[in-house]
Amino acid sequence: MNPLRAVGAGVLTLLHAAGSVTWFAIRALAAAVRPPWFGGQLLGQLFRIGFLSLPVVGLTALFTGAALALNIYTGGARFNAESFVPNIVALGIVRELGPVIAALMLAGRVSSGIAAEIGAMRATEQIDALHTLSTDPMRYLIAPRIVAGVIVLPILVFIADVIGVFGGFLVSTNTLDFDATVYVRNTVDILERWDVISGLIKAAVFGFLLTLMGCYHGYNAQGGAQGVGRAATNAVVSAAVLIFAANFLLTSLFV
Amino acid sequence: MTQTAKIAWKDVTIRFGRQTVLDGLRLEAAEGRSLVIIGGSGEGKSVMLKTALGLIAPDKGRVEIDGRAVRPGQEDDPGVAQIGMLFQSGALFDSLPVWKNVSFRLLHRDHMQADEARERALEALDQVDLDHDVADKRPSQLSGGMLKRAALARAIAARPKILFFDEPTTGLDPVTADVINKLISRQVKQLGATAVSITHDMVSMRAIADDVAMIKDGGILWSGPLNGVETCENSEVCRFVRGESEIA
Ligand SMILES: Nc1ncnc2c1ncn2[C@@H]1O[C@H](COP(=O)(O)OP(=O)(O)OP(=O)(O)O)[C@@H](O)[C@H]1O
Ligand SMILES: [Mg+2]
Predict the structure, then answer these.
(1) Exposed, middle or buried, A86 (CB in 10 Å: 0-12/13-18/19+)?
(2) How much is the pLDDT for B191?
(3) pTM for this model (two decimals)
(4) Among A44, A211, A51, A43, which residue's Cα sits nearest to residue A118?
């Protein structure tokens, strides 16, 4: 095959995918902002996406904060800057690692789950059945999941921020001889409101992206059990890539 | 067929890739009558029903309900809203208990109170000969035949004007199949519904059909009242109904 043609075909496929994801997102948003709403579905998703993700997000945040403190301490010691541990841990967690790590964990837990569930519904004609019961699948299935993602991620990330900083605090006060009150005061002093808020805005965007990817790949799943598996994999991979890309874009906007 | 057409397939052509499944198919289902569609496996019977439901967009032609073209992909289409559909695979929502499946339309579309909707669901379960303790089970806990009957209950629960049944008696024992056949006849005779059923079960066909249509090679090979099948108006239909292959 002519290499130019291969590149061209690749670009076209990518553009086509981007177009159909965008169109899907527009339909989902249109369904989310206009009634009828399915409140019960939304509550269920808030519980499944939010509450049930707490252990995973909490544990990863704790370990990340702890490891971050140790690394900054070792690095800082090379130019006598060990005392900056609390400041850098706080900024690193709140502005960057809290949102990104929580979102990545949720891409693994939630995007794949959504894609598999909706993909299986597609494969077993349940989405067609919704249609024949005069119910728009966009409203009943898709919108509640995406709205739940946008609401829940900032809350989860806020909790991850607190736990992550606490992880750094635990390591610093127990093994690195930091004074507890000084550590807390430094953390509070360094953080500005915008540090926290910008992290939470990132979180909301990530929540949108990771639920959107789960829904999109599940909704368009084709070909039985194999297709469902493929949808779940594609959902996780595309969600993770989009999260990193969006993180870079938002960070460059926010600095 | 002297009555007006409730549903009309007008020159419907459907292709999947290079495969032409329906090729200019024309058929009418008369109001208040029970039409049975027969034909070999893979001839496009299920696709025909899905086209009338707006789930598949025809490449050519259209399906009309009450004289208005069905708009594909519109879940609030007034024609489609009259249809209660039994899918060949059942297609019950496995995240919901059986009674919420059965009363789904009543709960979400007609905004009925939960206890009233549950009453209606239990009524529908009675009609398909399912015990009330099935109501709180999940679809995954039911046997194949029970699933079929629960799905049938969902199709009839909202008392639709049009009923589509894709193989309603497949996988049922003869006695239960008889219950279902009588149920379908009753829906048409007493409630004045229009029914379109697909079946491979010739006992069922004789029990429920007013009219019969046989699909072959993407079109209607023959259609007419049930006694036309019995008097062997078309030799190929006759052979099909008797289960004789063309190989001597
Ligand atoms: N979504 C689809 N994509 C591609 N091909 C399809 C699709 N749905 C149906 N087909 C093809 O269309 C043809 C008709 O399918 P259909 O399900 O209507 O058959 P049927 O007459 O209902 O058969 P059966 O009696 O076995 O249920 C088959 O060859 C099938 O492979
Ligand atoms: Mg079929």
Answers:
(1) buried
(2) 80
(3) 0.90
(4) A211
CA distance B144 to chain A (A): 14
Q: What is the CATH number of domain B5-242?
A: 3.40.50.300
Chain A hits for B75, CB-CB cut-off 8 Å, are 130-131, 134-137
What's the DSSP call for residue B199?
-
End-to-end CA distance of chain A: 45
pLDDT at B130 over 80: yes
Residues ≥6 apart with Cβ < 8 Å to B234: B214, B221, B222, B228
Instruction: Say which amino acid occupies B120.
Output: R
Q: Are B71 and B20 in contact (CB under 8 A)?
A: no
**Cβ atoms within 10 Å, residue B120:** 21
Question: Running DSSP on this structure, what letter comes out for residue B87?
Answer: B
State in Å, rounded, how far the first CA of chain B is from the last one. 35
CB-nearest partner of A128 from B55, B76, B105: B55
Beta strands in chain B (DSSP E): 5-16, 19-30, 34-38, 60-65, 68-69, 83-86, 162-166, 194-198, 211-216, 219-225
- The yes-or-no verdict on residue A222 having pLDDT over 90 is yes
* Predicted confidence (pLDDT) per residue in B14-65, tens digit: 999 999 999 999 999 999 999 999 999 999 999 999 999 999 999 999 999 9
Strand order in the sheet with B68-69: B19-30, B5-16, B60-65, B68-69
Q: Is the CB of B41 under 6 A from ligand 1?
A: yes
Q: Which of B216, B145, B233, B215 is nearest to B224 (CA)?
A: B233
A194 burial type by CB count under 10 A (0-12 exposed, 13-18 middle, 19+ buried): exposed
Domain positions in chain A: 38-254
